[in-house]
Amino acid sequence: MEEIDWKNLSFGYMRTDYNVRCYYRNGQWGKLEICSEETINLHMAAVCLHYGQEAFEGLKAYRGKDGKIRVFRPEENAARLQSTCRGILMPEVPTEMFVDAVKMVVKANERFIPPYESGATLYIRPLLIGISPQVGVHPSTDYMFVIFVTPVGPYFKGGFATNPYVIIRDYDRSAPLGTGIYKVGGNYAASLKANSIAHELGYSCEFYLDAKEKKYMDECGAANFFGIKNNTYVTPKSTSILPSITNKSLMQLAEDLGMKVERRQIPEEELATFEEAGACGTAAVISPISKIDDLETKQSFVISKDGKPGPICTKLYNMLRGIQYGDEPDIHHWVTFVE
Ligand code: PLP
Ligand code: COI
Questions:
Q1: Dist CA 145 CA 127 (whole Å)
Q2: CB-based contacts of 210: which residues, under 8 Å, 6+ apart?
Q3: Using an 8 Å Cβ cutoff, are 325 and 120 in contact?
Q4: Does ligand 1 have an atom closer than 6 angstroms to the CB of 245?
Q5: Spatial separation of the C-alpha atoms in residues 339 and 336, rounded to whole Å
Q6: The whole model's pTM is what?
Q7: DSSP count for the chain of H helices, then E strands
Q8: Which ligand 1 atom is nearest residue 242's CA?
Q9: Does ligand 2 have an atom closer than 6 angstroms to the CB of 241?
Q10: Which residue's CA is minimally distant from atom 7 of ligand 2?
């Protein structure tokens, strides 16, 4: 095998040895199969291709200083996938099957798990697609569940470093009663244009306001938002954002630190009052925010005065990473070992 330059990996796809697949046919799930083929053979009329009946997840495996392999909260990803399944009428993947598939695919690709302290991790991507050929708009009858893995570096530039974000009011990622709370591909298709504008303008990522009133902070492209002030962790309550497992974990860690946690609507003007802020997610981990500009109103909310991550973001980041890598005690039982 050619040497992998772990320290300089981007957040991209690299071929690994195996993926794990399972089919749903005749109203039931089959057995997990291990596969070395990178491609899938799909009917051109498959429902997922035309009507977007597909869902995905994202989680990571970490190699600790002790050499052990840990996966962070896979049951939460299973639960969120089940919620997505209910949302777009797909059969639910049982938690046990999901977690077994995660362990199987990680173990089979063990040589691709980046070393401790390389800055890279093994990204795990479960995917569920409706595969029946159909032209009418109806749920598929058959489904394919597949999980692949790929080693990745940081999602946002510089890893744990501050980055600028931009509110783009001309686009909505999802509607208030739409599919924003589910992890379906259509939400990401809807974000491509705003995301590309943000990048062209030199921002790390686009920010969405709530689609109905354009008043409250929703989320960034592929991460939730949080702000810190007066020893309080504040994060949006919205019917159009993805319930982030990282955010849920950070809320708990903030409480562990003795902070107050508020999940509520955050009016845009409140950005001026935050001492620190960040984007959080599996890919983003915590990406501290330097400033948030509003493209239309031309307001600029500078969050980090010195351009450095603030003390609470840093503390939360270290606590989270500590648990994920096994450097800190896993007091909330978030870690699953792959043996
Ligand atoms: N929001 C969106 C739109 C996402 O795609 C993600 C990534 O999965 C998140 C938030 C963060 O969620 P999590 O922390 O579960 O990865
Ligand atoms: C995540 O898993 O954090 C993501 O949302 C990944 C992103 C590339 C869609």
A1: 6
A2: 176, 216, 217, 218, 238, 240, 265
A3: no
A4: yes
A5: 10
A6: 0.97
A7: 7, 18
A8: 1
A9: no
A10: 222
